[in-house]
Amino acid sequence: MRLTPTKSLSSAALLILLLGVRCSHGISLSPEEANQFLSRHRRANQVFEETKQGHLERECVEERCTKEEAREVFENDPETDYFYPKYLACMDKFGDSEKKKQDLVTCVHNIPDQCSPSPCNARGTVRCEDKKGDFLCHCFTGWMGARCEKDVDECSKRNGGCDHKCNNTMGSYRCSCHQGYMLVGRQMCNDVNECEDAGVCGTARCENKDGGYECLCDHGYVYDNETKTCVDVDECLTGVCAGECLNTPGSFRCFCDGRQGMKLGQDLRGCKNITPCLSPSLKRNSRSLYLGRMFSGVPVVRLRFRRRIQTGFSAEFDLRTYDPEGVIFFAGGHLNSSWIVLAMHRGKLELQLKYGTVSRVTSTGPIVNDGQWRKISVEEQGRSLVIKIDREAVMKIAVNGDLFTLKKGMHELNLTVGGVPFREDGLVNQVNPRLDGCMREWRWLTGEDSSIQETIRSNDNMQCFSTENPGAYYPGTGFALFNISYESQNLSLKLTLRPTVAMGVLFALVYQDRVPLSIALANYHPGTDEWRDFVLVSTGDAIIASSPAPLCDGESHEIQVTITGNQTLLLVDGQAGRSEDTEVPTDLFSQSTTFLGGIPDDVLLVSTLVSAPYSGCMEVSVNRRPLDLDQAMHKHNDIRSHSCPLLDSHQ
Description:
This protein is mainly beta. It has 8 helices and 50 strands. It folds into 5 domains: 5-110, no CATH class; 122-151, Laminin (Ribbon); 235-273, Laminin; 284-466, Jelly Rolls; 470-649, Jelly Rolls. Strand 7 (181-184) and strand 8 form a beta hairpin. Helix 5 crosses helix 6 and helix 6 (77-94) runs antiparallel to helix 7.
């Protein structure tokens, strides 16, 4: 072992001190003793080891060293404390075998280097620094810990600086953006304008939004992601209407059943009651008999008189009518026996009679269908029949026979009022038996039948209105049906009316469940979204002509509609309405049935704009020919063909 100058000086000082002590005590040492005291045992190769101060291989590999000797190699305690236990382990493992000499050398040489092998996490370490008994791991950015083994969570602080999402990774992090954004640089997120792709929304309208986009459709449509198209929303499936609902492209329409007295509310969804604007004077006379109650033409009254002693026939009554044609009464036996029929024909009284094989028709006297009360009498006087109007004879007809029929010893006579007891083709002269007329103060065979009075008093429909004007009356119930041949595609209509309700069907052509043409009063115009009184001319639910028309004032108004090809002209009291460029299916006119005052129940509400029956007075001409409701194929019994009650302002 080599002595350093410091060590030599210390030895010399110690020697001098010892000599002084010895001299002071009188103790002396021989040179040999002094030399032995100051020296220590040295191993072989002493000179070489001194020159190789602390050389690890000389100290601890070629020979086993003590901890003190190891201390001389490292010259510090930490490294010595770290080295020596591991050194002993190397010696125990490799020191006894010459064959393992090299392994021992390697084992011992590697002990002092704290970084061999590196204790640091290789993935997170830049380098390992040997700290003489310790080590220092220098970490990459994103790693931490004594061995750089812990990932730094950059996202935990200010979201890693990311605009949107921060994704921590081992030793680093990554910024990402929400859908609809793209990463610019490492941390910034910018919106992506998806609408720059022309096909992104298909046929819909694309609207770019912050972080996304939206495919927009017009109101009433919804976007279908699969087909990339706008699909109509069927709002009717949600029960949006109180009545019936018609889904239309992009919208819907609600309909209320006017035949049930309902109309559309101003919210265009709900239904409310139809109310009159005028009130007709419907006061009735309980001592009067209405002759036109049964449209079928069957009599409204049937009487049978039986006498033991034959008497002459006599009848007297008051009559009021505007109807030019119809049966007043029949008297006699059966069809092939003797009978008479008093009727109206062309506004005058007409008497048809049959006595055995002799038939005769006589018509004379003044016009009596002027709405005035007339007292009429028919009386057998000998072999003559005398007819009087207002007590003046207008006819005297010779007859040969009796109206009474002898049957089982009794003289019998049948009397019917308002019709005949057989088919109308059994009449001598064909007349329409339906008569819109009123009778009062009747006396049959010089007596009054009290049973008729009781029946009439208990049934309002058998009673006449107290006051009447000429014209057909539609009470807001039912309709009249005609089978009119429309050979031309041109159509001219004239309607004279006094409505009591500002809503209702005036005229309609119906083909199956379709309504090719309708003229109606309405309080709403669906085309202009206006709420006021209108006359609407429509085909189906499409308006072809319209005009504002406040007609509910008790006055008479005139509506004219002329259709020539696809041109429709509407005049209301001479003022032209607005015509639309809508094709009119005139080809269906010839196949259609004509309805006045309403439409049948089997026509769907959605087939036409107005379904409510008309209420009020009205006269109709088609192609300049007036329509007589008595000539209809069908008419509701409450519709009066030739008389209309007076109209008063509705309070």
